[in-house]
Amino acid sequence: MRFVCSLLFATSILSTAAADPVADFFRGQTVTIIVGSDPGGGYDSYARPVSRHLGALIPGEPSVVVKYMPGAAGLVAANYLYNSAPRDGLWIGAPQRQITVEPLRGNAAARYDPFKFNWLGSVTSETAVLLVDKNAPHRVPADVLAKPLILANLGAGTDSEVEATAMRRLHGAPINLISGYSGTPEALLAVERGEAQGVHGISWSYVKTKKADWLAQGKIRLILQSGLKPHPDLKGLPSIFELAKTQQERDVWDLIVAPKEASRPYVAPPGVPAERGAALREAFDKLMRDAAFLDDMAKLQLEVVPASGDDIVAMMKRLYAFPPETVLKMRAAIATGG
Fold it and tell me: How many other C-beta atoms can be found within 10 angstroms of the C-beta atom of residue 76?
């Protein structure tokens, strides 16, 4: 009898130790990734392979689906995740990169505290480019500052609008932004139809994979690149920082382009139970090293230059620590209207 009791007690301990409440919660469930843009663009291109591989790395191996919530350069999705989405760990977001700094930019429509999100990480950093049609007279950045240029706008609050506006306000570039396009595919179609001479703020990773034929055929020209660091593919292409004439202007551009260091960010809402949030962060970190995922990304010609959730928070702390006068100059540089 003593032996049987001891055996039952030991079995009970092992059973309790083997139980995983996080895995038990996720098992049989569906995790939804809210993409803060339209289907077919860069954020969607990354969310699809993430959705195919992430579930296998979350305890309990839930299924993962993608849904779209475009609008206001990712703010609609960010506000939903922060204020309305269930906080159970089954909802995560792939918003646009600007959400890290919209409160710093003074955007009253950003109804969230970026530091309170559960930052899972970012799949890659990005470099954007200014591209023009081959028939445009612009060949070097000096031409952009001297010759009128009609650009298709990728959307309010996107890099396309923000950076083109800053070029106008900081450096006097005679840029005319044409709005009304829902995303990258439509903006590029506008260039093809002759409605616009070019697009600024489009990710280089998108151009080199989706429009490789345009590059090969010489249908477009690259004028400059936009990112904290030059892209290895774009050696010799001038940086947007070269437009700056003072240190403060360089600092303003730093504030504007730094979010590209976490260009494909993933977040969970605040208030997710700590153990589930930790499991999601660990799963995302594993995903960035997962052989099957990396093979999938290589086949899709999508870059993986990951940042952890802690990296994103550190980046935000650096940006939010800039002197108030520099922040005010940045806000004035990107302000639309007036």
Answer: 17
Does some domain include residue 116?
A: yes
Listed in order, strand segments (DSSP E) in 79-192 are 91-94, 118-122, 128-133, 149-152, 175-178
Q: Determine, yes or no, domain membership for 75.
A: yes
Cβ neighbours for 147, distance < 8 A, ≥ 6 positions apart? 137, 138, 174
Position 235: which residue type?
Answer: K
Model's pTM, two decimal places?
0.83
Q: How far is CA 300 from CA 23, 51, 56, 202, 293, in A?
A: 31, 14, 20, 18, 11
Residue 319 falls within a domain, yes or no?
no
Distance between CA 168 and CA 137 in Å, rounded? 18
According to DSSP, the residues that pair with 132 across neighbouring strands are 198, 221
Length of the chain: 338
Task: Determine the Cα–Cα distance for residues 264 and 63; give it in Å rounded to an integer.
Answer: 21
Instruction: Give the CA distances from residue 264 to residues 46, 164, 258, in Å, rounded to whole numbers and listed in that order.
Output: 7, 21, 13
For the chain, which residues score pLDDT lower than 50? 4, 7-8, 10-17, 338
Q: For residue 63, what are the β-bridge partners?
A: 30
Whether the CB-CB separation of 137 and 312 falls below 8 Å is answered with no
Are the beta carbons of 123 and 286 closer than 8 angstroms? no
Number of structural domains the chain divides into: 2
d(CA 286, CA 310): 15
Distance CA(11)–CA(22), nearest Å, equals: 21
**In this structure, are 255 and 132 located in the same domain?**
yes
Task: Please check whether residue 331 lies inside any domain of the structure.
Answer: no
Provide the pLDDT for residue 157: 77
User: Containing domain of residue 229, as a range?
Assistant: 128-259
Parallel/antiparallel/unpaired status of strands 63-68 and 30-35: parallel
d(CA 270, CA 290): 27
| Residue that terminates a domain, selected from 259, 288, 321 | 259
Dist CA 233 CA 41 (whole Å): 21
